[in-house]
Structure formats: structure tokens, C-alpha cells
Design a protein that fits this description.
There is one protein chain. The protein is α+β, with helices and mostly antiparallel strands. It contains 4 helices and 9 strands. Strand 6 and strand 7 form a beta hairpin. The radius of gyration is 16 Å and the shape is globular. It starts with a strand and ends in a 9-residue tail after the last helix. The mean pLDDT is 88.
Amino acid sequence: MKNARRFLVSPCIARLISRERGVDRQVVEGYLSSQPGKDQLVRLEADQAHFVLSGQDPEGNLVEKLAPLPREHAEALFSLCIGQISYDSLHVPPQSGLSHRVQLDRVVYPSSFDLITVEFDDIQQVEAFEIPSWFGPEVTTEFTYEWRYIALNGFQSNLEVP
């Protein structure tokens, strides 16, 4: 996600968006290791379960290798997890003819907060992006907003979202 920016969003705005758009997918992730940069996790989504090896390529992009699991096996592996996170994810349609991909994630466990991610095709779009007034504080570079960190340590932010 080298060409992405992440922002907190007010819960009332996130609720309105999810009420209008609905949830695309509900995700539960359980982390099996605590090695930075080499995540091993179990991911449950609707009718799918995967064992996931996750890391970064030399350019800094997230790379995930997924292996399908029977749901019963995935649920059994959750008892071995050292941390979990659960969130609802939905795509937000682009505004004003922009082609950016926008995703809203509503984290429900281990704490609740709302995060919006805007993905771009190149670094020039990242730098030229004008932040909408309804976005909250930017948390792109804050590791405490990474799924792995939250699953293993809980949500530890004191940022207020207007």
C-alpha cells in the first residue's frame, strides 16, 4: 500500500455510509506469530477461510499468499492465535469523477473505530490528493493503525475524530 493514504473517520459519518452502502465483507483475522514483517494469520470472510502469509516486497507493497482452509480448521486455529481483529469493510464510490479506490473499514474488535483508505495509481496522485473535509486525522505512517499491531496490542490511540 505504498500508494495509499489512511485517515480516521467520525463514527457517525461511517455509520451513515455503511447504512447507505451496506457491508461488502466481514473479516476476522487471528495472528499466529509476532514476527514483524512476516505475518502468519488465519482470515475468515463470509464463506471463505484462508491461512495467510503476509509481508512486504522490495518496493514496500503488501504481498499476501493465501492458502484455502476448511472453515472448521480455520476456527480450530483461532484457539492458537495470540491476537485477533474483526472489521467490516466496504467500498465507497469515488467522488467528483476521481478514479481513486476508497475503502471504509469499521473495526469492531478489539476496540471500535473507523478508518478510510484511499488507494492511488502513482505517487503523483498521492501527493496531489486534496483531503475531503469529512476525513479525520491522517494515520498513514502510524504503525499503531496496522491490523497486526491492533490485533496483538489492542487499539491505543488518543486521536479525536471531529
